[in-house]
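User: I'm writing a tutorial on reading structure tokens. Could you give me a worked example: one chain, its sequence, then its tokens, then a sentence or two explaining what the tokens reveal?
Assistant: Sure. Here is the example chain.
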Amino acid sequence: MVSLLSFLLVIAVCVLIHEGGHYAAAVWRNVQVHEFAFGMGPGIITKRLAGGTLWSWRLFPIGGFVRLEGDENELRPGDIPDQARSFNVKRPWERFVIIAGGATMNILLAWLLTALLLSGNGINDIESPVVGNLMPGYPAASMGALPGDRVVSINGLPISAWPEIRKTLQTLETDDVSIVVRRGDSEMTLSGVVPASGDQGVRLWGVQPSRIRYPFYKALFVGMSYCWRMSVDILKGLWMMLTGEMAADVAGPVGIAVMAGDAARQGFWTFITFMAVINLNLGILNLFPLPALDGGRLVFLLGEMLSGRRFPERWENRIHLVGFVLLLVLIALVTWKDILRLAG
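And here are its predicted structure tokens:
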């Protein structure tokens, strides 16, 4: 139940922010919006407002759409046609902004959620060798380490970054360890035994990194950097899967539901992190130049802006239809793989 509710919440946020981007851009460029829908299938709750837009909540809470004047040939009961406000009569750059608005809003939400995480919960400082928390039952506590201690050296070997603490401990040939830490304005030596344990003889001192919390205004700038790095990692991962350097591991609706439930069980901030990552992935993937995706439509608009000629609409629609069918087949295959993985 937790997985289902978490999944529905994630889908609702992703879809509403995405379609809200299309809607806001259409209103900005004075395009008639006939319907803003969340979900697919028959409508459960519908309400037509004074501006003529039908707001609907549909039976199956997967996906959504914004239906614009001129973007479809079919008019439905209650629609108020207005050719002067048709999507098709707008200039190419205006149509580009409307199509790109959805993915842009997903990426923007990922950035804001990342900033919220950096400000409200903070992140582990995995660069500075500063002790955060002490793990009960490990040597650090008995040796007298305290949160805030900055590790200077281990058995005479200098330490300048957090990863070097663990790396240096693994290179020692003795269990007797002397760790110099800076506490306030003075330095002191902590001595004790850090035994090699486990099959691989790993030495665990028993400390966790400190946490950094940023003021929200600064978190916005830092969050932008984090989102950029995550975007690069996403694109690298996709490239490695396409080139066969890494096994393809793509999650469908079932897999996302499981991950959403796991994130929710781990707490609010883990769920916020998951929501940010999902929106960033959705925004980036939606901009891929593939038929049926927003990126595929943007390719046609770029071609129109560069050539000054519009690609025949019926052929463009047929290309997107083929892409949509292939996308459904891909989703079905990935979903089946997720089910088999869960069953296994």
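What the tokens reveal: The mean pLDDT is 86. The chain has nine helices and twelve strands.
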